[in-house]
Amino acid sequence: MSGILVIAEQRGGELRPITLELVTAAQGVRRAADKVTVALIAATPDALIPAVSVAGVDEIVTLQVEARAFDPDVIEAAVRALIESRQPWLVLIPHSIDAFGYAAAVAAKGGHGFASDVFRIEYRGDELIATRGGYGQKVDIEVDFPGKPVVLLAVRGNVYKPPEAAASPLVSSLAAPAVKSRVRSVEFIEPPASDDVDMTAAEFILSIGRGIGEEANVQKFRELADKLGATLGCSRPIADAGWLPKSRQVGQSGKTASACKLYIAMGISGAIQHLAGMKHVSTVIAINSDAAASIFSIARYGVVADIFEMADALQEQS
Amino acid sequence: MKILVAVKQVAALDEDFEIRADGKDVEPEFLLRDLNEWDDFSLEEAVRIKEASAGTPVEVIVVSVAPEEADETLRKCLAKGADRAIRVWDDAIAGSDPIAIARVLAAVAQREAPQLLFAGAQSSDHAFAATGIATAALLDWPHAAVLTQLSFTPGASTARFRRELEGGLLHEMETDLPAVLTIQLGINTPRYASLRAIKQAAAKPIELLTLRDLSVPESAVGEAGSLSRVRRMYVPEKGRAQMIEGSVEEQAKRVIEIIRAAAGGAA
User: What domain range includes position B165?
Assistant: First the structure.
């Protein structure tokens, strides 16, 4: 067993940026003789070669498959064939929605060491240790993989910085195994633009979460956002309940607040999926009645207060 | 026709808590237990399919691999519309990771032979997002993760669904059956159990199975059957926001100052 295998993720023929973050993650644990190999599994994998020709990659291996869209059976078989052929000791997969659908299957079938949502990978002596969160990110958990010659880690996004320098890795190809697909792609559907707001362009967002309690309270925060000149956003439970349109949701499966400079989170405890959409914002003010809420660990300013009283006081003073 | 719904009694941390003496978990007395939120949605999805079924009778079975304390959660599921509840436990299962739990679930699925097996897309406590898909792999069943919509008519040989990707993009797919599907929050609106249903559920039996009943060897579960092992759990030193103290009026005044300063900087 030698070398580190990185499974690239693509959608619609475009490389997803987390792939390059995994290349950086690999550098931290590669040993002297280790090659870092990036696998491109796609209908037209050659088109993706330039995007992964970056510093830290020794080899690119392409697997041409028929499926143009994500197919759990196809990718699972391809990753298993790659492990068989390259015998890596470490396989890095993005902790993404696609990978939710196949990473654990590859690990369970192969009996490989496995952990998901990993945000730190290190060697202590001869032992590989992965760190992940537990109990709503309130604790960190170190796990190891005794007796496992191959370890598969699904790595959290936005943790490692992608390499910037270009390089010219060796390119090879591997025949993708023949697979009978049992799950077939029908179509991709863009989320409905039920609202004219563009959260990705908003510079100042006031977001509300479960703490607002009921739909009738949305109006109070809408008025506050208007008064402050902020765009009203929300966390997943508010959009799921239909209290605000999906287009206002900030987080992993909502919008990334990419242009945002000031973010006020009211009644949002800070699930990891929500933080994924806003933790890069330079000024985050978290207002929550629970002093132990996770959001206080990433916010610049924290206010422990009843959000309704705070909304009234802000309305009055602004 | 059966739908098997895998459920987990998750644990949340009390405001103050202590790590166990062996450093590998939290002392159990500081854990607040409840049905995993994702599983509430997958149970609701199964019950809705049952209620909407015109001709084919549908049986909804909940299963949990857990010690006795999970009976409370299974009764909650019975009150919300599950027909039957199974709990599998054996002391050898303690210390299992999600893949070892999946080995037990796969054995239950083989015994019950459902057309659909639902699991939550992840659990709120440890969020591996692995149990359902690992179960599918061990059964060699088709599988898909993070569903926000499902169309299935009992008796049909396929099911159509949408999974929700990053940024809200939806991917519509169709799967052969039997299949394992993992369910995302928001696929439906889970019901509350009525008082009457809660009372009735209290009297319903929970079928208890052991590893022997399922012909699962002890070596397939616990630490030996797991793909990872916990070395240490600890409270990380995290960044902490600069806290704004004082009365609500004083706090609001400071927040307004910060907003004005940031707006000035942004302009």
Answer: 2-220
